[in-house]
Amino acid sequence: MKEKKSFWEHSGVQSVTASLLCILLGLLIGFIVLLIINPGGAFNAIITILKNFWNYENPKKAASYFGNTLVKTAPLLMCALSIQFCYKAGLFNIGAAGQYVAGAGVTLYAALAWKLPWYLCLILAMAAGAFFACIVGLLKAYRNVNEVISGIMLNWIGLYLVNMTLSTVKDSTSPYTLKLNSVNKKALLPAFRLGEVLSNKYITIAIPLAVIAAIVIWIVLNKTVFGYEIRATGLNMEAARYSGMKEKRNVILTLVIGGALAGAGAAFLYLSGYEEWSVTQSSVPAMGFNGIAATFLGGLDPIGTIFSSYFIQHITSGGAYLDKMIYPSQISDLISSIIIYLCSFVLFFKYLMNNRIRAKKEKGGKQS
User: Fold this and answer.
1) pLDDT of 28-45, one tens digit each?
2) pLDDT over threshold 60, residue 339
3) Which of 79, 299, 302, 306 is the most exposed place for a label (fewest CB within 10 A)?
4) Residue 271 CA from chain centroid, whole number
């Protein structure tokens, strides 16, 4: 008879517990940094970061700024899903940042130069992200080039290619691309009156689509043969090959799907009209890298990643409300970075919990 698992032995419980430990430790270290900068206002500062849009007493205004956080959560979630999907196949898709950049460049050029509707811009963004990821997959599958190295190189290639491409559709008086609202309204993602709920015009179908994508990824990974093959390839590529699985195809296809997810994330942000691309930026957008934190904080589970993505964006946005005369606005980025660093210990925390449970069982068995 199979022994019934205790509450703490369930993988979901361990993932949530480990993630909460990362968050609490990250906030504690951030609070210590605030104390060093200015002890008198440290407590209020950490509360301000955590409150984010709740800093506004006006409910309508608070709802609007809550909407802003949701708008940026959607692309973050897509990047997190991209990294997570590839990680299940044993691939560290740090190139998701470059795939996100490629998606942003293509979707904006299609919208501003070709005046295409939003659904074609979205498809092209996914194709661009998939293309960048396919390069990484081919190099990995047929030349055993480490995906981290090729991914990082493509991040920078993508950034400068996009800067050059979008310089043809930028505002003549600024480094930013033209506003979709004034050039091509049909490229804006439809809202279906979702924005009216939170009094925010940038709320679009991107948010529910991102959540649906997470659910679909969970189903694919856990309920399909393809998902089983991906996980088997990730656990042991050689064993997957000898069992008849096409491991090279799985590696390439997994990265292509991951790239498409990251490219879609870029379209979700830029086709909402929330912000424009700056053709003078010299660093890859942090969205792709923050996805690493979100996916590990979510316990490498698509559903958990929905909540962790929101939390990472909530903390990041909360730093904007600090008193800049006392604390630098980057303090929220520091806290997020600390949490990102601690996320690498999620699996380690789960390992410690399992060891402790095993030790207790062995002790109980000896006593009986």
Assistant:
1) 988 898 899 888 888 988
2) yes
3) 306
4) 18
Helix axes 42-51, 11-37, angle to 10 degrees: 140
CB 96 within 8 A of CB 76: no
Helix (H/G/I), strand (E/B), else coil: 5: coil
* Candidate CATH numbers 1.10.3470, 3.10.620, 3.30.70, 1.10.8; the one for domain 60-322: 1.10.3470
Angle between helices 96-112 and 247-270 (to 10 degrees): 50
Distance CA 248, CA 244 (A): 12
Q: By the 8 A CB rule, do 303 and 214 touch?
A: yes
Could you tell me if 137 and 251 are in contact, meaning their C-beta atoms sit under 8 angstroms apart? yes
| C-alpha closest to that of 74 among 291, 317, 332 | 291
Do 95 and 110 contact (CB within 8 A), yes or no? no
pLDDT at 8: 66
pLDDT at position 243: 79
At 365 the pLDDT is 64
The radius of gyration of the chain from alpha carbons, rounded to an integer in Å, stands at 22
User: Which residue, among 160, 136, 134, 131, has the nearest Cα to 150 in the 3D structure?
Assistant: 136
List, for residues 266-300, the tens digit of each pLDDT value.
Answer: 999 999 999 999 999 999 998 988 898 899 888 88
- CB–CB of 164/109 below 8 Å? no
Q: Kindly state the tokens that stand for 8.
A: 């703490």
Q: Which residues pair with 176 in a beta bridge?
A: 278
For the chain, give every domain's residue range: 60-322
Backbone angles phi, psi at 145, to 5 degrees: -80, 130
- For the chain, percent of residues with pLDDT exceeding 70: 93
Cβ within 8 Å of residue 169, ≥6 positions away: 108, 109, 112, 113, 177, 178
